[in-house]
Write a structure and sequence with these properties.
The protein is mainly alpha-helical and 231 residues long. The protein has 2 domains: 136 residues, no CATH class; 50 residues, no CATH class. It has 8 helices and no strands. The longest helix has 47 residues. It is elongated, with a radius of gyration of 25 Å. It starts with 13 loop residues before the first helix and ends with a helix.
């Protein structure tokens, strides 16, 4: 008896994975950079904590709004293309069927088979066939603005909690070092997790995230020391 072959693909993760990875990475890096920069300036522990919390709230709202607006724009474009396709199907279905057949022929089917496939698909669901094969719009990859906004805000908040917690628990004299170490570890884990979910190399995914996070914290620490020393 042959075993049932099951294939696992990752395309269905694209909608939430991109927003979640971006949100968590931005939450860790931006809030950690704020905390490190303010701590490096010699500010009091209460000021450092207040800065981190303000960065968390403002960043989460900004990420949610930005994701919603950008993904909604993509959704609006998709809807406009679908409306145009419905109008074209209603006005000239014969031409649209020939257009669909030409797409299949360009992918390797002979003309007779391409026309037969186009006829059968259009008889079943013409707008779905044209959306998928002419416009490249599928249910799996459709823009979902609310999902992207919520995933981004939640991921940002989860990421931002890590450097804030490190700042709260660390001794006052070593806030910058503690936050930096914790942040780099979290970024490495985040990069590896994102790479695993996307089917990429874990070490490469971790390294690229850590590198940019380290650069951001180094820059804000330098600014904090510069302006802290001048005050």
């Amino acid at each position: 008896m042959r075993s049932h072959h099951v294939e696992t693909h990752r395309a269905h993760r694209i909608g939430w994975l991109r927003a979640s990875v971006l949100g968590a990475n931005d939450g860790v890096v931006s809030v950690a950079s704020l905390v490190v920069g303010v701590a490096a300036s010699g500010a009091a522990a209460q000021t450092v904590l207040l800065t981190g919390m303000a960065g968390l709230v403002a960043g989460a709202m900004s990420m949610a709004a930005g994701e919603y607006v950008s993904v909604q724009s993509q959704r609006d474009t998709e809807e406009a293309d679908l409306r145009q396709e419905r109008a074209e199907l209603a006005a000239d279905p014969v031409h649209e069927q020939a257009e669909l057949a030409a797409i299949y022929a360009s992918r390797g089917l002979d003309k007779a088979l391409a026309m037969q496939v186009a006829q059968q698909l259009m008889a079943r669901d013409p707008i779905a066939a044209h959306a998928r094969d002419e416009l490249g719009i599928t249910d799996t990859l459709r823009a979902r603005p609310l999902q992207a906004a919520l995933a981004s805000a939640a991921a940002f908040s989860a990421g931002a909690v890590c450097p804030i917690a490190a700042a709260v628990l660390a001794p006052a004299a070593s806030v910058s070092i503690s936050v930096t170490v914790v942040t780099l570890l979290v970024l490495a884990a985040l990069g590896a997790t994102a790479a695993y979910a996307g089917g990429a190399n874990l070490w490469r995914g971790a390294l690229r995230v850590v590198m940019w996070g380290a650069l951001a914290m180094a820059a804000t620490a330098a600014v904090g020391r510069l302006f802290g020393a001048s005050l």
